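[#protein-structures] MJ: dropping Kinesin-domain-containing protein here for a structure pass
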Amino acid sequence: MSSRRLPTTQQNGRGRAPSSAGQHAIVPTISRPPTAIGRRAESVDIRDPPARKKESNEENEYNIRVAVRCRRRSEKEIEENSNSIVITEGPKSQSITIETAATTSVMGVVTLPPTRTYPFDVVFGPEADQATIYQEVVSPMLEEVIQGYNCTLFAYGQTGTGKTYTMQGDLQTSPLGNPLAGAGMIPRALTKLFQRLEGAGSDYSVRVSYVELYNEELRDLLAPELSAPTSSTTQPMGAGAAQPPPGSGSLKLFDDNAKRGVLIQGLEEETVRNASEAIALLRKGSERRQIAATKFNDHSSRSHSVFSITVHSKESSSLGDDTLKMGKFNLVDLAGSENIGRSGAENKRAREAGMINQSLLTLGRVINALVDKSSHIPYRESKLTRLLQDSLGGRTKTYIIATVSPARSNLEETLSTLEYALRAKSIRNKPEVNQRISRNALIKEYVEEIGRLKADLVSSREKNGIYFSQETWDQLSAEHDDRRTAFEEAKRNEEEIKSQMLVLREELEQGLAMLSAREAELREAHNDIEIRNLQLDQQRQEIQKTKCALEEESMIRQAHERNEKALEQVARRLKQVAQEATQDVIPGLHGKIGRTSQSLHKNSTVVLDQTQNMSQIVSKMKVVLSDFGAHQSKSFDSMSQGFQNIQQMQGQALTNLSSVLETRLKSLKDTAGRVFAIDEEDSSRMTAYRSVIEAFSDTLRADLSDWNKSMLQSCATVLSEVTHTQGTILAEVTDALDAYTGVFQTVLENARNVSSLNMEQQRGNEVLHNAFGNEEINRLRNQNKKLEQALVAEKAKSTEAQRTFLQDVAGLLRTYTQQQHEGLDRVASEAIAGNRASEQQIQRFGVSLKAARQLTVEREESFGRELESAQADSESIHTDGIKRLDELKRNAQQMESINDVMKKSLDELNQTQEGRLRAFKRQSDTTIHQLHSSKKARLEAVEEIVDNAVTGSKSIGIALDNHSQDVYGKLKSLNKTVQTLAGSSASFQTSEQKDMVAMETALKVIQEKGVQPVVTTNTTPKKRIWDCEEPLPVLGDRNAILEEWRRNVGSSSHSSSSQGSAGQAPIVKSEPQEELPPSPKPVKLSPPPLPLPPVKDIKNLNGPLIERPLNLVDTRNRRRKIVP
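AK: finished. structure tokens for Kinesin-domain-containing protein:
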């Protein structure tokens, strides 16, 4: 993997303390100018004016972010039974809860412990892994470092809570160079940093430094020769045991001249080319850190450490100039705070713990001062706070990871850590981007650095040979003597070890020989054990055979006794069952059938009553609908008559107005003639003429006003009558429909209730019938089985009795047993036949009852469908009526609109006439004025007046004719609407009457077909007395039971036992037995298998073997015969 990198150089000397020969140059830890961790670098962008800088500083101020990580309980805490007191919400949340006391229980009442909840930016539970913490915390900070910011991440917490594991973790890498799952934040950040820089494709350089603060003393962990701390003689890890060379004292802190931060004198910064080199340096420094074992942790860090990553990358500006962008990432692993008494620290470790606690206490005071915004911040009281000066309240982006323990034993430390972190969360920083460095400034720094290095080289060349100080030479001599002494001791140890090895080899050979002898003895003992096992198996097989024979005989004997007792119990139960059947079951069944008949009769009565009620209601509804139709017809007739009267009144008014106009026009003409006749008369005539004109105008205006008022009054009267009539009709129709709907709903509800009641009763009857029938059938079947079992038992007993007689009377005994078998078969067959007949009779009754119930269900469903159809018809009628009512309401609204139109037309006519009268008056005044000037003009004016009056009267007549025709047309339309409403009302009445007829028909169908009596089938069982036979006599035959058991059960069990147990045992030939007389052919019945009796029953038998079961040999012979 290759990439372009910047040349490795030292930083310029601005702000550094003067260096001298024999001392390392002061290498700052932050660039431009390079400083220590707390250095506040210049962040003014060369492209931003000062005003914008100040404004951006105020806007970019933000709080330090704090994360909390809780580990799992350690093995030591589990062994101490220290319960967990930390409550988190999964791997990642924003709050943590601590139980500050234990759960208490008093008198059985449990009191929950008090808790405290702390909010943070993020809380990682025990389930969170290293990758989750890196993605949430470190990854965003790494991007900001690449952008040119200074960032700091430090871990704080109690000793043993996982600070070093979080920051470093597992430093090994995978074969591909990637960090392992347990890697901490530092190796993950290094790996991702180089991946990010190489992916960008620009020139870059990365330098790292690793510094340790131990007992307020700074040490460079990456120095070629690590000096031991002044407080200890040797390094705990074994490194750096040599004395420091001359002039290589511990690192020191200096403030730069501009008071912008601190510098570390003599700190080495190593340039790394890839992540592997950086992790190797990290591993090297980690091995040099001061660690020790305490009660809390076997590898407890006894110092603070700071791992710094400085990144330079080239960036091209918009002007083409190349600048360097610098960012720094400080990863701080603080030593753990601890209680010296609990940690077990003594002497040197106690002093270390005291110094750690002192530095952390100073850090806490700094945080409190920053939170309280105090005027004085005590940075200089500890080197730790001086290193972290810029990270706390400066221009650096800071993130704190507080680690806590979940155990109750660490409650105080956990609460202290959380309070500490919560206070630090309130600190506000002002992060700024570091200043870019131009190419010329960088070259200038390189030239100065080259000059300084040349001076150092010349000063070193002036010395001849290799120069050592006396202390170094003494140290080297002492080391050489130590090594020589160690070599001689090693040689002496080698001889001693060789002699010991020879002795051990001889002992090994002797042990091998003894082992071979013991193995031979063990083989012989093993063969002897196998022979003994074979003999033992043979003895076990013989014992097993004897036990089988004894168990078989014991089973037969006990089975005979149990069968006798069981037969007596069966007889008693049969008698009890018969008595219960005759006394309880049959009367209950007939009683239930009687109650069912009464329920059906009551249901029929209810249905008939309801149908009569519905018929009466339908008759009443018919009367109401016919009255409604007659009343509505009268209302429509009155409305039509009112419209005709309005039309006649309007025609008469128009005729009167026309005659008035004609009369006025005639009088005007006469007046004009008189004007022509007395043209030479005085002006007094003119005055009289003017008064006549004005009187004419007033009269005409009054006549028109009276006509308008009469027309409006007539229209209003007719409209109010029509509206009142329609309102009355609508109210009556609505009430009638509501009453009809309510009555019909009531009838439907009653019918449904009756139907549901019938269905429930039918279902109850069916359930009772099924339960009784099944119970009776089961009892009869059990009785048949018991009779068959009794028959088999009696036959077995008779066979046993037969085989006990002497051989001489075998023929007589066969005859006796045959007759007894025939009698038993006949009795059993008669009992079984009777039981089966009863069972068939009960089944036929069940079938008939199911058929009757099915018929009832079908009738109920038919009745329900008819009710639903009637309800649908009723709802459609109600809906139709509502629609017709809505049409009537709309017609009433149309009447009101017609009245408004008429009012508007009359107003327009009045305005027209008024305008014409005003024009006529103005024209008359003009004519009179002209008559005073000239007679000729007056004559012409009179002629013009007459002509205008004629024209005006014609136009008035035309307007009146048009208005009359308009009013007539609207009245005609309104009359048609009323006639349409009358037709709709008639059709509504007709449809209602049809619906009533359909409802009457449905009621008749319900009355005729809805209630029918139950069809009788003459299959219902009659009441009768049940006969029960006496218990059968008890007989016993052991040989028959044994033979039956061998045939049905013993064959399979003996064959399986012989195959499974012995298999290898030989069959022993028995001695010939005396021949027994042949037994009669057994009845093929299947009695229930009997359980095998335990062996201990046979052992309890007393007396000699001759008094025990007689067929032992026979049983063994039979068992041998069935062995395959």
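MJ: nice. DSSP finds 18 helices and 20 strands in the chain.
AK: one more thing. The two ends are 84 Å apart (CA to CA).
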